[in-house]
Amino acid sequence: MNILITGEHGFISKNLKCALIAAGFNCDTVSLRSGLQRLRSLAGYDAVIHCAALVHSKDSSPEEFHKVNTEMTADLAARAKNDGVRCFIFMSTMAVYGLSGSIRGLTVIDSQTPENPTTLYGKSKLKAEKLLCELSNEFFLVYILRLPMVYGDNAPGNYSRLCRLIKITPIFPKVTNERSMISIENLQGYVLSLLKNSEPDEANGIHSRILFPQDPNPICTTALAESIASKQGKKLILSTFLGKLIMLFPFGSVRKLFGNLTYAQEMTQPYQEFLHSASPRD
After folding, report:
1. What are the boundaries of each domain within the chain?
2. Which of 37, 60, 202, 237 is buried most, with the most CB atoms less than 10 Å from its CB?
């Protein structure tokens, strides 16, 4: 099977390429902005995994988010469809729900939770999802992965910030919370399973699916911090006082790191059998 992955320098892209090659796939990566011009045709690829995106750039305008995350995604998918690519996997985001979690209670996203993105990133991704679903048919399968935080060695974003914080502090808030996350290893396995088992649901005429990959169990931020510290060769002092203190400021980064936000378990069943014996790890 021949696979094309966009976003050749991205954390997810690089790790997926390694896993796919190890599993015996032929795999190429390409830059969305410049590399696709070098490819005259996508014919010969069985699947495109679209990871490239404009994420949390404070300097980017709404027009730039729309162009990169919405227009370029739709254009790539249309080109793939026209060139005979069978399967298109789109890395979307939990941000399409516009929820950052609750400090004091559990926020659970289920099948009844409405999409209500609040960021330019989330809005542009949701628009792309809708365009992709319109393109899908029995010859062009579309899978949309609404990812929670992806963590692992050298992961960017909140995980990277957490790693830097642990490097400079011996004390960490002791908090008991639950967040849906997925390790890069589990995401690699998820995508492999998806590629091996991708088939249209002809009985119901369904040719696109929105999927919700996550680790088998929610992650506690404090437990994740302890694991990161262990890999750095240090032991954290967990402070109940700091844990109670941050509860007084349930905003911004505090809510994103320590708030409770999970996908309902029943949403994550498809293609999750390979995770049954896995455990969260960094």
Report:
1. 2-153+181-215+265-275
2. 60
Q: What is the pTM of this model?
A: 0.90
CATH number of this structure's domain 2-153+181-215+265-275: 3.40.50.720
Q: How far is CA 188 from CA 18, 97, 120, in A?
A: 9, 24, 27
Separation of alpha carbons 218 and 178, rounded Å: 5
Averaged pLDDT, 23-47: 85
- CA distances to 80, 138, 148, 226 from 14, rounded to whole Å, are 21, 30, 18, 26
